[in-house]
Amino acid sequence: MSTTGRLAGKTALITGAGSGLGRASALRFAAEGAAIAVVDLDLAAATAVATEITATGGRALAVAADVTSDADSRRMITETLDEFDRLDIVFANAGINGAGNAADTTEEEWDRVIAINLKGVWLTSKYALPHMIERRTGSIINQASMGGLIGLPGIFPYTAAKGGVIAMTKQMAVTYGPDNVRVNAICPGTIPTPLVYQSRVDRGAAAPDADQAALDADAAARFPLRRLGTPDDLAATALFLASDEANWVTGGVYTVDGGRSAF
Ligand code: NAD
C-alpha cells in the first residue's frame, strides 16, 4: 500500500471504527495523514484502534457512542472538535446485520435494525453538518450495501435500511451541495467480518460452529471477480471519496462488490 498524504491536515470521524470496515478505513485514513475520531459502541475496541494509530505516529481519539442516540451523536462531534478543532470527513459506517423476510420479521427486529442502520447514519452527520456548512467544506460517506441495491433473501430489515441510506444520501447531496458539502454512499458486497459471520448464523445459512472460511470460498463463486472483498478494498474507495480528488463527486452510489450487483 502506497501512501501519499492525501488527507494531511484533515480530521475524520468514523463510526463503527472498532472493527471490520470501519477499523480498516480508520487505519487507512490515518496513514494518509488524517486525525481520526474512532467512534464505536464498544469503547475497548475503539481504544485499541486509536492506540494502533497513535503507535505509528498518527493522531486519534477513541469515543464511545451509540449512533442511535441523538445525545451521543451530538457529543461525539463536540468531543472531536474539542480535540482536533476541525472536522472534514464523516464516515457513517456503524451497522449491524438484520435477518428475516417480510412475513416473519418481528417488529422489534425491524425497529432495532432501522434504528442503527438508517437513523444512526442520519444522526452521525446531523451535528457535523453545521460545522461543515460554516466552513464550506466537508465529505460525508454513508455506508450502504449491495443489499440496498438488489434483492437478497433473508435480510429484509437490513435491505430496507440500506435502501433508505442510498435515498438519504442523494437527498443530502442535493441539499448541501450549494454549501460545498459532498455526500456519497458506498455499497459493499460481501467482505468477511464479524457482521457477515453473524448474519449467516442469524438467517440460518450457517450453524454457529460452521467453517466460515469454507462458506467464504463457496460465496466467492457468485462474484464475477471470484473472490470476496477485503476491508482494505473498501477503505480504498472510502479514501477516494474522503479526499480532495473527489471534490466534484457528490450524490454518488459506489459499488465495491466484485461485480456482484451487476447481475
Ligand atoms: P463489524 O461488525 O465488523 O463492525 C461494526 C462495528 O459497528 C462494531 O465495532 C460495532 O461495535 C459497531 N456498532 C454497532 N452498533 C453500533 C452503534 N449503535 N453505535 C456505534 N457503533 C456501533 O461490521 P462490518 O462488516 O465492518 O460492517 C460495517 C458497515 O459496513 C455496516 O454498516 C455494514 O452494514 C456495512 N456492510 C458490510 C458488509 C460486509 O460484507 N462486511 C457488506 C455491506 C455493508
Secondary structure: elements and pairs:
Elements: E1 11-15, H1 20-31, E2 35-40, H2 43-55, E3 60-64, H3 70-84, E4 89-92, H4 107-126, H5 129-135, E5 138-143, H6 156-176, E6 181-188, H7 194-202, H8 212-220, H9 231-242, E7 253-256
Parallel strand pairs: 1-2, 1-4, 2-3, 4-5, 5-6, 6-7
Helix pairs in contact: 1-9, 4-6
The structure holds nicotinamide-adenine-dinucleotide.
Structure description:
By secondary structure, the protein is an alpha/beta fold. It has a single domain (11-192, 230-257), classed as 3-Layer(aba) Sandwich (Rossmann fold), CATH 3.40.50.720. Helices cover 45% and strands 14% of the residues. The chain has helices spanning 20-31, 43-55, 70-84, 107-126, 129-135, 156-176, 194-202, 212-220, 231-242; strands at 11-15, 35-40, 60-64, 89-92, 138-143, 181-188, 253-256. The chain has a seven-stranded parallel sheet, with helices on both faces. Strand 5, helix 6 and strand 6 (181-188) form a beta-alpha-beta unit. It is globular and about 45 Å long. 45% of the residues are buried. The structure holds nicotinamide-adenine-dinucleotide. Nicotinamide-adenine-dinucleotide (NAD) is lined by residues 15-16, 18-22, 40-42, 45, 66-68, 93-96, 116, 120, 143, 145, 188, 190-191, 193-196.
